[in-house]
Amino acid sequence: MRKLTDRVRRSRALVRFFAGCAALAAAGGCRDDAESKPAATRVAAAEAPPVEGKLLPVGAEAPDFESVAHDGTRVRLKELRGNPVVLYFYPKDETPGCTAEAEAFRDDSGDLQQLGATVLGVSLDTIESHRRFAEGHGLNFPLIADAGGVIAGKYGVSTRSGFAERVTFIIGPDGAIARVFPEVRVSGHSDEVLFALREVGKAK
Length: 204
Hints:
- The structure is a single chain.
- The protein is of the alpha/beta class and 204 residues long.
- It has two domains: 2-42; 49-202, Glutaredoxin.
- It contains seven helices and seven strands; from the N terminus they run H-H-E-E-E-H-H-E-H-E-H-E-E-H.
- It has a five-stranded mixed beta sheet.
- The longest helix is centred in the N-terminal third of the chain and has 26 residues, at 2-27.
- The chain is globular and about 40 Å long.
- The N and C termini lie far apart (90 Å).
- Mean pLDDT is 81; it is low at 1-11 and 13-49.
């Protein structure tokens, strides 16, 4: 009788054990850790790119890029070292906010030049769209087409909505990010950029 009882107990324990394993397997808990992760997360840590939406911080080296501006000139960030760069991302050509922002930088071009700063505007628009936008508003600085969001991705600027977030980076003469302006408000933005450039110049 005792042997029969022991067998029943062991049988019940085995049933509970295998039922638990089945539940874990269904939830992915019985798979090997490496297999349970999506392929994208199995990239080596050394190759991990900036996280979209997590902006590069002050002090980080500004990622280099090379592209063609709206007027056909080649622009490479690395070649601008020695002077500050205002790299601003914006959502879309010819929209009210983006137009106001670009025109403010245009109007303050004299002060920006006195500080030795180069302004680069970046959006997901095409070169042709940039050309029309620049010509229509007399913009006197390069607009760079980032149709695939590659440049935005390097700086952690989100393009999930199909447009680049409105973010400005000031890159110091040494190639490091000196200031970051997330969630830019267009009104007064050019003024705060000028102020920041003067502060960066004092810190040299």
